[in-house]
Design a protein that fits this description.
Blueprint (H helix, E strand, L loop, with lengths): L3 E5 L5 E4 L6 E5 L7 E7 L5 E7 L5 E8 L5 E3 L10 E3 L1 E4 L14 E4 L5 E4 L4 E4 L6 E7 L2 E6 L4 E6 L4 H9 L6
Parallel strand pairs: 4-10, 7-11, 8-13
Antiparallel strand pairs: 1-9, 2-3, 3-6, 4-5, 5-6, 11-12, 12-15, 13-14, 14-15
Length: 178
């Protein structure tokens, strides 16, 4: 799992895409990067999320949910609850799991034994990486919010303030069936 070890107080703008082909993608406008580490999670068959992390800063470059098992999509008819302290900024991730030689194969860490869930609310979506929902704090970068456990593990990625149109696209999306 990705661990968050610090917070960068600078917020980067992000392009968020939700369409008929990929449930969602987030691409940060950071111009400061040359090398990207990738973490991929899911079951490796029906569900896959890929997160790009900038090697020089430990901050996110991209987050792409390429697909998710339909049984792990939860329709939620409410707005997102905000019940924890939220810090503005950008998470800085622990990069110690990656090999520093930067051979192409070393840029990827795969966790394909992970059940991910997607909560689709009225004005938000939440990608959930853990069955235990013990969020200790939130870090929010514009309308992207990261739920962090007390041990630093990334538990959720929320995209907030989505339009009805974007939510409707997700509700109609043809997710993989198990």
């Amino acid at each position: 799992m990705i661990k968050v070890i610090d917070i960068n107080d600078k917020c980067e703008n992000a392009n968020i895409s939700i369409d008929d082909y990929i449930p969602f993608s987030i691409e940060y406008d950071s111009s400061y990067f040359t090398e990207i580490f990738y973490w991929r999670g899911g079951d490796g068959k029906l569900s896959l999320v890929e997160i790009g992390i900038i090697r020089q800063t430990g901050t996110f470059k991209s987050i792409v949910l390429t697909n998710i098992n339909q049984k792990d999509v939860i329709q939620y008819d409410k707005v997102i609850p905000i019940n924890l302290f939220t810090i503005e900024g950008q998470p800085i991730c622990d990069l110690s799991k990656w090999n520093s030689t930067m051979n192409y194969s070393d840029t990827f860490i795969d966790e394909f034994d992970l059940t991910i869930k997607l909560l689709v609310g009225l004005n938000f979506i939440s990608l959930i990486f853990s069955n235990t929902f013990d969020i200790a704090r939130y870090i929010q970068n514009n309308n992207i919010r990261f739920g962090i456990a007390s041990d630093g593990s990334l538990i959720t990625i929320d995209i907030l303030d989505l339009s009805e149109n974007k939510i409707e696209i997700l509700r109609k999306y043809k997710f993989n069936k198990h």
